[in-house]
Amino acid sequence: MPKPRVSAAGGFAAVGYTFRKGREVGGVFKLYKRMRSKNACKTCALGMGGQRGGMVNEAGSFPEVCKKSLQAQAGDMQSPLTEAFFREHSIAELETWSSLQMEAAGRPVFPVAWREGDTHFKRVSWDEALDRVAADLRAAAREQTFFYGSGRSSNEAAFLMQTLARAYGTANIHNCSFYCHQASGVALSRVLGTGTSTLVLEDLDKADLAIVAGANPSSNHPRLITKLVEIKERGGTVIVINPVKELGLVRFKIPSRPRSLLFGSDVSDIYLQPNVGADIATCKALLKGVIERDGVDRTYVRDHVEGWDAVEADVRATSFETLLAESGLTRSEIDRAAAALVAARRGVFLWAMGLTHHEHGVNNVVALANLAIARGWVGRPGCGLLPIRGHSNVQGLGSMGFAPALKEAFAKKMEEVYGIPPASTPGLDTFRCMEAAHAGRIRVAVFLGGNLFGSNPDRTWAAEALQRIDTTCVIATKLNEGHVHGRGRYHVVLPVLARDEETQSTTQESMFNFVRLSDGGEAAPAGELRSEVDVVCALAARLLPPGPFPFSTMTNHDAVRRAMAAVVPGFGPIAEIGATKAEFQIPGRTFHEPAFATPSGKARAQVTPLPRFKPGPGEFRLMTLRSEGQFNTVVYEDEDLYRGMTRRDVVMMAEADGERLGVREYDPVEVVTEIGRMRVVAAFIDIPPGNLAMYYPEANRVVPRRVDPESGTPAFKSIVARLAPVRG
Ligand code: SF4
């Protein structure tokens, strides 16, 4: 089995990494100064920085920093790409580059374009690029266009771009969260009437139990680990539900705490390793254990919950044998966890894409919510549901209306205040737009950041889809694979300032519904970089006739925020944030009383049927996952420190499966799914037999195009796969 180079996650390895990165970008002090600037962390949605200064969370705790944030910062401090780079590297060559190579290439600092038949990108002027994109948008049928946003962008740019798209006449507006937490949003809306976290950061400090399901915050949201360790230090219990035994969820050395840095801290008490895709069975087994122990908060479910009787009857009618067979867990494991749930007084439930990336992703989240509801742990201090969101402003994009349909109150205001009615044709979500593109029904696509190509299942199909679009326009801070594989017949990459390089302030929203103000002001690489807001305004000036929404005045970010405040629910305080610097909690989303945003004010518990996902003889349950050295589709290094992997072309499996199949570590094997085969090498990890794991996004070439029907979130997990040893 590969041995991690470290005995616990975090620790001196992370500290050493900081110094290495510092040297790469011209000195540790230079990097530190930039990290401490008054800007929101550019990486995950846990949220750090803003007006309290970088590396500070909303509770004022310092230093809150992690390797992920350093990687993103160092990436933005790279040297500019030159025209010689684009002359030397053809499109054909760039198509062979990995995510890591694209990320490390440098910062694009002038617009480049590619036309069908060209061998290389060529430098173009901003006017030429924007004129062409605007002309192609004008000529296209509105329903044959789409606008895609990524969580890197600011609220200001996102609000303007979705307003531009609606004023132009399409509702094909969507963002990267459709491929990660849309299932959470749909599930939470179903249960509570609102789609985001029900708790704030301080609630984590009051809980005496946490369940972390389908998430690996030690790699992806490292500062969250401190909160888990603190729960344990207070005498509480942390239960992890994850098919893979992750080093960082067992033991972590917190660099900002001397004792933990030296000796490490335990992160979890109970570690459940169910089969991939068996979360509903796991949650139901836990709920059955809670019911058996008389642990349901009867007063709470009577007074504050609808539909509880049906949920309880369904769980009572399902045998432990069925639930254990499906989950792969033992009765004693369930008993131990259920007893901990019943013994605790305040619990928080955290999850990520281990729950959402399934065809039954919405029901996975509902099943977890049912468990929280049983204990009366939604709508009370120190309790609640927390989807662990990915990119730093992904939640802000949703709030800004970067989605096909606006919330009713938002849509009404857009019409009343700016004369922009809802589109006559309902908008398509991300996957439906990809399908439309593949069918040749999309003429123009505009990407406000992101890597839509890399985040799709079935890479071959995704490239075909995007390459069938006539015109693609990408607004980016760095290069990625999508800029090459996801190019339309005319393709332009427009370079923009990173968040902390903006010349005016911008805002971002954390996964705790907290809005931060980023000052910008850091040095940008020399070149023709523009603010995202300027780019949207320049496109609007070319595309739209003068109308009630005053795009011509919107290059001023305070003006954008006043426009937002007039229409975006809960964003009134943003109007003056440029002057007041007062960051704020969005009202109406977090609940410390059991009065929810449903018509009755009650939570809606719902029955979750066991999915029909059952691999047959010789088949495995395959999931894709990310490494310690990557963030979303961006790979910063091939090594996965915490899993002991030094390469990414691996299929991770149980040693027992290897023995059964006669496969030894690092033997070549083929992973075969319904859409293709991929040659990799075997690596043994602690995962239940019958389950496999491969790295995203590379493994997307064997991920079929199956989506959760309700949320449209693709099933990057629960994939049926076979293993074929490669002989000779
Ligand atoms: S945990 Fe997330 S928000 Fe905090 S420093 Fe790391 S990447 Fe930034």
Supply database-style keywords:
alpha/beta; 35% helix; globular; binds iron/sulfur cluster; 6-stranded mixed beta barrel; 7-stranded mixed β-sheet; Dimethylsulfoxide Reductase, domain 2; Rossmann fold; 728 residues; Barwin-like endoglucanases
Describe the structure.
Helix 8 packs parallel to helix 26 (532-543), helix 14 (279-292) packs across helix 18 (331-343) and helix 23 (430-438) packs across helix 24 (459-467). With 728 residues, this protein is an alpha/beta fold. It contains 29 helices and 28 strands. The strands form 7 sheets. A 7-stranded mixed beta sheet has the order 3-2-16-15-14-4-5. A 6-stranded mixed β-barrel has the order 21-27-24-26-25-28. The longest helix has 14 residues, at 11-24. It has 3 domains: 106-172 and 393-496 and 531-570, 3-Layer(aba) Sandwich (Rossmann fold); 182-388, 3-Layer(aba) Sandwich (Dimethylsulfoxide Reductase, domain 2); 620-725, Beta Barrel (Barwin-like endoglucanases). Iron/sulfur cluster (SF4) binds at residues 41, 43-44, 46-48, 64-66, 68-69, 221-223. The site of iron/sulfur cluster has 14 residues, from helix 3.
